[in-house]
Structures are given as C-alpha cells and as structure tokens.
Amino acid sequence: MGRQESARCRMESRRASAPAIISFVDLLGRSSKGNTGTRHTPTSKHVKDSRTPEELINGVRERLLEAIRLRLRADVPIGIYLSGGIDSSVLAGMVTHLVKEQGVSAGSADPKERVTCFSVAFDEDSGFDESAIANRTAEWLGVKYMKKHMNEAEIARRFEDATWHVEHHNPDFNFVGKYALSEVPRDAGFKVVITGEGADENFAGYPMYLPDYLREPDSSWTEFSTIDEDTRKQQLKVTEAAAAEYYKSVGAISSNRGPSVARRMLNDITTVSSMAAFQLDVFAPWTQCYGTSDPQMTIAQSADGCARKMIQEHWHPLHTAEYVWSKGHLANIFLTCLGDRTEMAHSIEARTPFLDHHLTEYVNNLPPSSKIRWDPQSQRFCEKWVLREAAKPFITQELYERTKHPLLASLVTESNVESLGFVDWAQCQDLVQQAFVDQNALAMRHAIVVAEWIILGKRFGVAQAEKPKGM
Predict the structure, then answer these.
(1) In whole angstroms, what is the distance from residue 276 CA to residue 65 CA?
(2) Percent of the chain scored above 90 by pLDDT?
C-alpha cells in the first residue's frame, strides 16, 4: 500500500515525484530532482500567538477571497462543483459574491450572468445523497444548478473506465462519482471548474484528526481556548474509542491503533493508523516470500529527518497529522483519483483555491484550537471552525451548522483472479456474496480493490505475476 502513503508507483519502470519535489529533464534525457520547499511549516507549538479570533477569521476570509478571484481568470467560462458540504458551498458563495458585488467575471462569462454549479445526485435512500442540500444552497445563492443522477447501474457502467483513468485501486466507489461528475460540465460546454480539495487537510476537517488535536494542550493560544485540561484528557479517550469503532464499522482494521515505533516517530499520532486502516488479505501464499511490511512505518519513513525533528520538538500533533495526511493521501489519492485524473478524463481543468500557497502558508500557522473548537454548551467539537466563521456571510445557516459527510459512492471471477497471479482465489471466491448480499463492509472493500486490479491488469496488459524461481 506504499503507493498511497509515499512516492512509490504501481507501474513498472515508472517513478513518482514526492510532494514538494520538482523533476528536471535536460536535452540529453537525463533527469534530476530538486526540493521546492516543504508545503507544511507550522509555527512552533511553544510560541504564543497573540492574535484574536477576529484577526484570524478576517485573515482567512481575505486570503481565500483573493485565492478564488485569481482562479476566476480564464478565456472560457468557469463553473463550480457543488456538493452538500461546506467546502464547495463556501466557494460557490464567495464566487457569487465576487461576481455580483465586485463585478468579477467567472472566466469569459458576463458578470451579469448567473454563476453555474455542477453536482451529482444519488438515490434518496442510498444514505449518500446530498443534492437536496446543494439545491437549497443554489437557490439561496441564485446560481444555475446542473446535476447528474447516479444509481447502482450508472456507477457499474462507469466503473471500468474510471478505474483505468485513475490508474490504481481505491477501496470504495467515490472516484466513480467524481468521474461521473466531470461529465456534467463537459456536456454543458465548460472546460474549467472551481473545486474544494484541500479544505479538510488545511483546516482540520476530518474526524480522525480529533484525537491528535487532543493529544497535547494547545499552549500557543491559551488566552482564547475553550477547553479545559480535564475535558481535553477525557475527550481524548472518547474520540480515540470512537475512531476505532468507526473504522471497524466500515470494514477497516481497528486493532492497529496501539503503541508502535511508527507512532512514536510521529509524536504518537493516530492519524497514521487511520491512513493504514484498509489492508487486504487476498494474496497468494507464495507472495509471502517477499516478507511483510508495516504500512505505518512506510508513512513514518516518508517524512525526512528534518520533518521528524520538527514533529518531535516543535509541531503540535494536529499539525503533524495534517502534514502526514497531506504528504500521503492528499497527494496520492485526493488530488489524483478524486481529482485531476477523473477530471482530465473528460478534459476538465479543476482549480483548487484552498491549496493556494499564500492561503496555505497562513493557515499552516494558525493555532490548532482555531481549526477545531470545543463548544462547552453543546459539548461538541466544531471542525474547520475558523473557515466556518470566515465563510459565514457567504453560506446558509444549514451549512454553517453542518458536520462533515463524506461521499462514498462482475469482475471477480476465478479466471480473472487467477490471471493476476499474486491473488489467491480461495480468499476471493465468496467476496461478492459477502459484500453485496451479506452486507459485509470489509468484504465489499476487498471485492472493489480486487476488481480494480483485474481492470488495470487487462487495460494495461500487465503480465501474470509468477512465483520466484525455486519456490
């Protein structure tokens, strides 16, 4: 699974560049790499931050508006991907504000024209349909709203092509939904869209960040803290137990969250355990000759010595969690199979204001307690607090108060599995039954991944894996 957590590549004779690394090729075909500087450089947790909440909120609002304004420059019309979540709704609200109030054009579109938003809708009883919220947001903003309805048949029809375009496996169907979403602007004549990738990474929007936020006191912003020490310690236990239970409920490993060398290398964060939670047990026995690997150690070792020194001595655990996730899953999954590859499959250019480097540098140096905020009255945490406050004038009250809801959206035959060579059919023959009849979450993810391996093997003409000689 190193492809997800480091700069490894699944394709033979191919090499990936790690985040913040630039590759050079001279006229003779010789290549070299250089470091562009680390993306994540938070202020030391030992330095007091005297800024008020209002200063932080205004700082985020000003920089995000500017990041969006810069990305509205184009000689073609620009649309927006709009889901029922806060990230895309913030962008839609701010774009609408810039167009209506400041006369900024969305690309080549006339400022007098309404902004256009795109979305996908699922069956209402699927548990994943957010189109009703997106529709209410569109009505509140007064924008055009175009959506594509998706059901099981539509997902199945696109599954193989989407897998081929993203070039690696994924343990659920969300990439197929993103692939289908990119058909909508293309069919409407759009070539550029604004998207919300990076908000959860920069503003601590993932629930798995909670234990790492609570792992140490936020000594940099004590004047404005809303959580006392006893509550912090109690909630650390509560959130760690909840995280383990959540990953177990979705078919992931929950037993890997105990003490480990990898966790110690990363100042004891459990985000590394969450990143390594989906492991497969479908391989042919002969593959054991290559030994076993520790995915958490792969993640820990992907941080160089300078970063690990900062992690051990200067960064708050929340900032470490954001760093590790951004260097791994953001770069290798969210910006590829949930980003550029699904969009460019339909010749769509996506622009990501939340990853603007001026905004990112500012947000990296915000106190942890401005990103995740404890409300003593409701006894609940508010993720992305400073972003919600900065965006409040541009979004509905419904979205301001809403918590994160991620989008989740028959190839597994004996001959197909055996054609891979490295997968054991005995481990796979009941996967489809267990996944889609017995509703076993772990089996579902295993079945999806094996099916994706089969697709990639066929589409790219990958030879069957063979046992090493002498086995």
Answers:
(1) 35
(2) 56
